[in-house]
Amino acid sequence: MLRLGPATPATRRRQPAVAAGLAGLALTGALIASLALGSNLISPAAVIAALFDQAVDPGAVVWGSRVPRTILGLMAGFALGAAGAVMQGQTRNPLADPGIFGVSAGASLAVVLGIRLAGTTSMLATLWFALAGALVATAVVFAVAALGRDLSSPVPLAIAGTAVSTLLAAITSFIVLTDQATLAAYRIWVIGSLSGRTLNGVGVALVCAGLGLAFAAAGARSLNSLALGTELARGLGESLLKTRLVGLAAITLMTAAAVAVAGPIGFVGLTAPHIARSGAGSDHRWLVWVSGIAGATVLLTCDVAGRLMGGNGEVPVGVVLSVIGGVAFIMIVRRVRVAAL
Amino acid sequence: MTSPRPAARATKPLIALLTGAALLTGCASDGQPTTGQSQDSATVGWTYTDDSDQTVTLESRPTRIAAFTDYAIGLFSYGIEPVAVFGRQDVASDPRLADYDLSGATIVGNSYGEIDLEALAGAEPDLIVTGIYPVDRGGTISLEEPYYALADMEQQQQLAKIAPIVVIKVGGSGADVIESLNSLATALGADQAAINAAKANYDAAAADLTAAAEESDLELTMLYGSADGIWVVKPADEPTTELYTSLGLRFTDLNPDGDFYWDVYSWENAAQMMTGDVLLIFNEGYQAEDFKAQPTFASHPALVAGQTYTWADAAFDYNSQTAQFEYLAEILRQSAKVTS
User: Fold this and answer.
1) Could you give the domains of chain A?
2) Alpha-carbon distance B155 to A280, whole Å?
3) How many CB pairs below 8 Å do chains A and B form together?
4) Residues B263-283 pLDDT 10s
């Protein structure tokens, strides 16, 4: 069983509903902050007025920038957090990141190909390319892993994912290093940001994330069995192959949706499940949802922080997360006593 | 066309032997005495002190030149044909080189910092020409940093072993940058008549541009856009815009102090920089359609009026800048004032 920190009775008995409520409150705060604060210091009163009447929106700041990025941050953060919880439950590795199955590398390559071959840097085209690349890459990873015998263990998938990711990253590097303009556009995308996004075409990513979440919710009970170890899970009547497939679908669809709208943002999928677990315990029926809420809260909070740091400009949320996430990662590694694999 | 490292290392001693003189002079930074001697005796050959105050001395005037694209274009335009060219984009398809015959030149690099050392050594250059950019508004240059177009100091040292390097400083006054390239070209034996002829065209185009600027009285904004926001060039910090300003053009200059070279505006702050009548959009990054797709920028008067033009930086020689003057004059004459 995966255990974080000293195993005192207090950490074993959680009240998931209370944790979910608190997480919900935190998310509400982050949503309000995301609408109220930004690099353009308009007053809260002006923001509220603009929210109810688009005609008085100063420079389209509220409806043209803050509303879209808040919705996208909510979606991407929730998807990454929930995907992280499924990923860590599937692999029983508290340090697993949802990008490991080739999703980020596939999306990156597709985006780079889009820029290089089609010359497109528009948000809508980038979203489609990223989504397609992420799904194709995961299919390839799964096909490679399926060549082996045992899909009941997450190890072949993780190895195939790492191998395919490395190959895709090499191709991506080759392309961006031979073309300066592609490199410039890719560099901006790969950091991960919510800036300059509109809601055009986001429906498809939303559907993707929703499907993934449905898979995650459906597979939550199996993850609880899996936490007892594959032997016990099998003994409890779980079909391991089915559990793996449902998990893979959930992780891929949610991560792909997030990467498509915000770029390959790191650390949210890694840290959100830990935050959630510290409050809601390790019952995946709660954990998936609370991780999602925690992920959205973390992403939106870091995005707001980035907006307030750059003067007239902004610091992309991917950069903020790398700094804060790096610290969080070290804390997690230090806290985790048993990295049960 | 990449150079395998071990092979490059193996040829090093040979190259060092062949270009022994170059190696010695490449390290010399105090060239004053040598300069004096060279003036006394015709046999001592050729010395040149570049914009970083480093003096290169060679036994005779270098005839085989390797150059970064931006400077190769200038040299070509004055009749000097480099034997090796490296660029930050694909050299063979670079439109700025379309008018020149590249058949005698080996292309030794097609992206920033990627130089095939073996191919460069194979071209047996006597001299390598690249650039240096100041790090601040005061024009400070740092010799601790690699020259422009080079990946790192190690690569720079490898290049210096093949042939001495001279740099053109690209900063401050645009006229000075052109002057620097002209003096290098002259030192390399460029035909003075060709330079004079180019200058006559340049002066005529400059006068016409000044006239167009006076007639139109428009403000131009030179900008780069990406998902992260808008970067506006500060006209006094970029030598090309400094040059055009000196000819009477007016560029958006909301914050002359502060950060060097660019001012950054997030999309939320886009409204702050909507003072221009014409947008000169860099050919890399967001184009007019992408700018229109940003709700906080879509109402920009120049964007609404369709007064947007693609901008590509040109080389610093009379011919290249003459073409830019003509392009700018045309833009000014067909644009209207759209801001109050």
Assistant:
1) 42-335 (1.10.3470.10)
2) 55
3) 108
4) 999 999 999 999 999 999 998
Whether A312 and B285 lie within 8 Å, measured CB to CB: no
Q: Which two tokens stand for residue B215?
A: 């007639």
Q: What is the pLDDT of residues B123-158, one digit of tens each?
A: 999 999 999 999 999 889 999 999 999 999 999 999
Give pLDDT, residue A336: 63
Q: Does the pLDDT value for residue A256 go beyond 50?
A: yes
Nearest by CB: B294 against A38, A58, A196: A196
Any residues with CB less than 8 A from the CB of B208 and at least 6 apart, and which?
B325, B326, B329
Range 209-228 of A in CB contact (< 8 A) with B: none
Mutate to test the interface with B, among A35, A57, A191, A312 (most CBs of B within 10 A): A312
DSSP conformational letter for B112: T
* Domain coordinates in residue numbering, chain B: 5-193, 205-334
Comparison of pLDDT for A274 and A328, the residue scoring more: A274
- CATH topology for B5-193? Rossmann fold (3.40.50)
Integer Cα distance of B277 and B325 in angstroms? 18
> B285 contacts in A (CB within 8 Å)?
121, 181, 184-185
DSSP bridge pairs for B264? B231
Instruction: Establish if A100 touches chain B: CB-CB under 8 angstroms.
Output: no
We find that the CATH architecture of domain B205-334 is 3-Layer(aba) Sandwich (3.40)
Is residue B86 within a helix (H) or strand (E), and if so which, with residue range? strand B84-86
pLDDT-above-90 percentage for chain B: 77
Tens digit of pLDDT for each residue in A5-29?
A: 444 444 445 688 999 999 999 999 9
Structure tokens at B305: 């009026």
- Mean pLDDT across chain A: 87
Judge: B228–A185 Cβ closer than 8 Å, yes or no.
no
pLDDT tens track for A173-202:
999 887 777 888 888 889 999 999 989 888
A311 near B CB under 8 A: yes
Minimal Cα distance from A309: which residue of B? Answer: B266
Report the pLDDT averaged over residues A109-129.
84
Q: Is the ipTM of this complex over 0.90?
A: no
Alpha helices in chain A (DSSP H): 9-12, 16-36, 44-52, 61, 67-91, 103-118, 123-146, 154-177, 180-191, 202-218, 220-226, 230-235, 240-262, 268-280, 284-309, 317-335
Nearest chain A residue to B87, by CA: A180
Out of B110, B285, B296, whose CB is closest to A59?
A: B296
Nearest CA in chain B to A63: B295
- Same CATH topology for B5-193 and B205-334: the answer is yes
Helix and strand tally (H, E) in chain A?
Answer: 16, 0
Q: Does A197 touch chain B (CB under 8 A)?
A: yes
Task: Identify which of B267, B269, B272 has the shortest CB distance to residue A196.
Answer: B267
